[in-house]
Amino acid sequence: MNKVALFSALFFSVCGLSDLRLEIKKGTIDPINIAIYEINNKSNISKTIGDVLRGDLIRTGEFKIIDGVEIVQLFDEKSVFNFKGWKMLNLDYVVIPEIDFPDNSSVNLRYRVFDVVLEKEIRASKIFGLRSNLRQIGHFASDGIFESILGFPGVASTKIMYVNYSNFDDEETYKLFISDSDGFNRKLLLQSPYPIISPAWSPDSKEVAYVSFETGKASVYIQNVSTGRRNLVLKKNTQVSSPSWSPNGKFLAITIHEGGNPEIYILKLKDKSLTRLTNHYSIDTEANWSAKGNKIMFTSSRSGTPQLYEINLRSIGKNPKRITYEGDYNARGSYLPDGNGYVFVHRSSEGNFHIALKYRRESFARILTEARLDESPSVSPNGSMIVYAVSEDGINKLSILNINGAQFDLPSSEGMVREPAWSGLVR
User: Fold this and answer.
1) Which residue range(s) make up the domain with 362?
2) Residue 253: closest CA among 231, 234, 229, 280
3) What's this model's pTM, rounded to 2 decimal places?
4) Are 114 and 89 in contact (CB under 8 A)?
5) Which of 121, 150, 179 is the last residue of a domain?
6) Is 378 helix (H, G, I), strand (E, B) or coil?
7) Whether residue 126 sits in one domain with residue 13
8) Residue 347: inside a domain, yes or no?
9) How far apart are the first and last CA of the chain?
10) Residue 130, number of CB atoms within 10 A of its CB
């Protein structure tokens, strides 16, 4: 195996993702107490949307759902919302959803959010959707509730992409899937007998890039999520890997195996022109673009062991700056959306692989996970959560970690999943 393929293979995870069920592993120390009144129409449709709302809010790690609030009347004797009664239940916020059906195919969801402490309504929204898309209606509502309380967008309506690997009777199959952020509504993008690695979303989440070995070497493809149309981005007689989209969607940072040595390049998608960023005898790979588009972080062995380096694109030509020093293995970096830090894979002194977080204002890295094999971190577009792959006690799963400490597992019993990637916000 060549150096690029070998280096990429180091970051494969070994987890499955199918028939997902949410398992709460650890919650925040001081969650927000929130109540969701039963939807007025007690149908299967209402139950589905209500279950999605609850599951989404729990999965953020920020909320504790308080049940039994129906014992408190919505209005007091003066027909005013009963803030006093809600306070007696130690509630912080209350959500009142309502549903109606304008026709046989449509659903209207209205919901109101009340701040119990301030005794005021903070949001009143309407969502119009189809009965065939109930879960997405619930996701959009939970994102609105999340934003009204915490002040920044929720990510329940976003997507997660991953590679599923199976081997039956010595027949290997690789499948590229996307699903909702809770694991439902899985969609197959590509199936191949050849390895698929390094999936990445375009900024608008309408396209994905990935590496396929179907030509006998690593090559980068771009595929439209809706139509399935795919194209080879660069015809080269050498390995091309590790795509990362620029924030404006006009460029890809890629690794090209030039003269037996992996280097970072920027590919302009419109005319296929290339700009070389690194020039070193070491392995340079796994580029990741900052949200502002002014920096690129990448993994390099130029210090003797895999470490993270950073290039300021406004100063091309200057030597990349090393940004990790903790231990002898730090790789697969991803920026936080606000640019104040980055997450990465860190190998401990015991030889275990963990997900770590480093804020730029701090001189140390925070180890976020505890299993022996945690890999492939991808940050949610609002910066509050990380999805990563983990193998622990013979169980393969994806795990979602809130940066504030809450953790939720999505176990599976089928196949092996590799390299989850979180989409952008859905508008």
Assistant:
1) 3-18+156-422
2) 234
3) 0.89
4) no
5) 150
6) strand
7) no
8) yes
9) 42
10) 11
